[in-house]
Amino acid sequence: MIPKGQGVSLTGKRVVLGVTGSIAAYKAAGLVRAFLRDGATVEVVMTGSATRFVTPLTFEVLSGRPVATDLFEAHQEMKHLTVPEQADVICIAPATANFLAKMALGLGDDLLSTMILTAQCPVVCAPAMDGGMWTHPAVTAHVQTLRARGVVIVDPEEGPLASGRTGAGRLADEASILGAVGSAIFSRKDWSGHRFLISAGPTHEPIDPVRFISNRSSGKMGYALAEAARSRGAQVVLVSGPTALVPPSGVEMIAVESAEQMTNAIIARLAWSSVVIMAAAVADFRPKQAANQKLKKQAQCDTTLDLERTVDILSTVSALRDRQLLVGFAAETQNLIPHAMEKLKSKGLDLIVANDVTAPGAGFGSEQNAATLIDRHGTISELPLKSKRRLADEILDAAARLVPDAVHARATDLGSKMR
Ligand code: CTP
């Protein structure tokens, strides 16, 4: 979970606060005060459009430092290089859809976007936008690209917007932004030394060369878990069925199509791993015989597909495992808890993430998810609707509480084999 900001000391840390042209720019004034209260020094950099909403003077008075706005004025002091060099974090709040697009594309047409291109420190973005822009496919794609590149995105909240409409796009609350900045500066490496084998996405089971059986999984939950584990210090192998997602940077990706290919890829890397998370929606059945040629409707009078069961990868891994921590998912449409408990037991898991895939706003394809976690001791915890990335961190928090000494010992064994 991205911790809320209370209590994290930022003493001695230098925060560059980038303010872009959104009505939420006035909320950045509160952020300046909060960063100062937590002990940081704050250097505010504004885009030209941000200065139409709030004057640089406001931020100069609050931060006690000059506010940079212009690439060419700042150029004499090479601010586009020196400010990011000295920063512990760059926080863009609010970040407009336009600014996210510039960052994703690597444009440097003003001081702030140029600074992002030279920055070596962590970058945190808190988007804010109205009128449904947050869910526009272009914005979604840019956010995905940025996340894959390691930028921390603090998702906007649902609620009343400046236009009077209601929707997703309100700047996240101050505590969430402070929490993300604190985590980015003192990034938790609680999974360092561990090796995660994570499956994601659907599988495609061929009927003939052009047709297959599949399901609605987008892969977003598994990719979010891979990104969270990597940013918390783990080495990660992501075995992914076909998805439209960009793999997170720093993660080894193995692309597969069918359940059989996924089984082989997982088994091949099992001995390497210390934690296995099966987030993939593996097809349970496949056509007994995939046709070599496209089935023609004229010639084909038999309209029945003859199916057979695929291998249950989790159960196989459970039987073969050597101290790995095992996390599974349960996608259910009814009787969530009893069905998930049954899977936890029958598949020999340490933790199961139960999803009601019919819940509004959650499940397959959605950016958000809600889940019930059940661990091997029978402890049940409810995680209400939140972004899949935040949920991923909370699943890793729950898994961390279950890591027995044996799993730590295994991670250490694996580490010493590498030396
Ligand atoms: N799983 C697997 N191999 C399969 C099917 C499922 O490893 N052939 C894993 C999934 O990745 C998930 C868990 O088992 O972690 C539960 O998957 P789910 O689809 O919810 O349940 P099933 O086991 O397929 O059972 P059912 O379809 O009866 O609900």
Summarize the structure.
The chain is of the alpha/beta class and 419 residues long. It folds into two domains: 14-185, 3-Layer(aba) Sandwich (Rossmann fold), CATH 3.40.50.1950; 195-418, Rossmann fold. Helix content is 35%, strand content 23%.
Structural overview:
The protein has 419 residues and is an alpha/beta fold. The chain folds into two domains: 14-185, Rossmann fold; 195-418, 3-Layer(aba) Sandwich (Rossmann fold), CATH 3.40.50. Helix content is 35%, strand content 23%. It contains 15 helices and 19 strands. The protein has helices at 27-37, 50-53, 56-63, 71-74, 79-86, 97-105, 111-118, 137-148, 174-185, 220-231, 259-270, 313-320, 336-346, 388-402, 405-418, and strands at residues 14-19, 41-46, 89-95, 123-127, 152-153, 157-160, 166-170, 195-200, 205-208, 211-213, 235-240, 252-255, 275-278, 285-287, 307-309, 325-332, 351-356, 368-375, 380-387. The strands form five sheets. An eight-stranded mixed beta sheet has the order 12-11-8-13-16-17-18-19, with helices on both faces. It has a five-stranded parallel beta sheet with strand order 2-1-3-4-5, with helices on both faces. It has a two-stranded antiparallel ribbon with strand order 6-7. Strand 9 and strand 10 form a beta hairpin. Helix 10 crosses helix 14. The protein is globular, with a radius of gyration of 24 Å. Residues 1-7 have low confidence and may be disordered. The structure holds cytidine-5'-triphosphate (CTP). Cytidine-5'-triphosphate binds next to helix 12 and strand 16. Cytidine-5'-triphosphate (CTP) is lined by residues 259, 278, 280-282, 284, 310, 312-314, 328-331, 343.
